[in-house]
Amino acid sequence: MSAINGVYRHESSNTTLTLEEGDDSHGTCSGTLSLAGIEYPLGFANYHFKHGLSSGPVAISFSVGFASGMAQAWVLFSADQRYTRLRAMGTDVANNGNVGLTAREFIRQTP
């Protein structure tokens, strides 16, 4: 079981990121992004270790599609493999060509 698995929360935006089924040998995981209580499955979720499996920072990326046709792509950074804080940058893209940028810091929740 990967240490990346867990629930991460950004309180002020009512956003919850749940990562599960982490596979450190392949750098893949699944999960959901919950916005105001509505859960959306993650697509193409993966992560990469800077210094191999033992230590160092981790980059995480995933995408989310919405029924409205809007999509988001996210890139997150963890300073270490304890994953206590995930610094995140996301981009919204709508079918009409509008693009927005979102920044968050997700805090790992205790089980």
What topology does this entry show?
Blueprint: E1 6-10, E2 15-23, E3 28-35, E4 38-41, E5 43-49, E6 58-65, E7 71-78, E8 85-93, E9 99-108
Antiparallel strand pairs: 1-2, 1-9, 2-3, 3-4, 5-6, 6-7, 7-8, 8-9
General description of the model:
The protein is mainly beta and 111 residues long. It has a single domain (6-108), classed as Lipocalin, CATH 2.40.128. The protein contains no helices and nine strands. It has strands at 6-10, 15-23, 28-35, 38-41, 43-49, 58-65, 71-78, 85-93, 99-108. Strands 4-3-2-1-9-8-7-6-5 form a nine-stranded antiparallel beta sheet, with no helix packed on it. A hairpin with an 8-residue loop joins β5 (43-49) and β6 (58-65). The two termini are 15 Å apart.
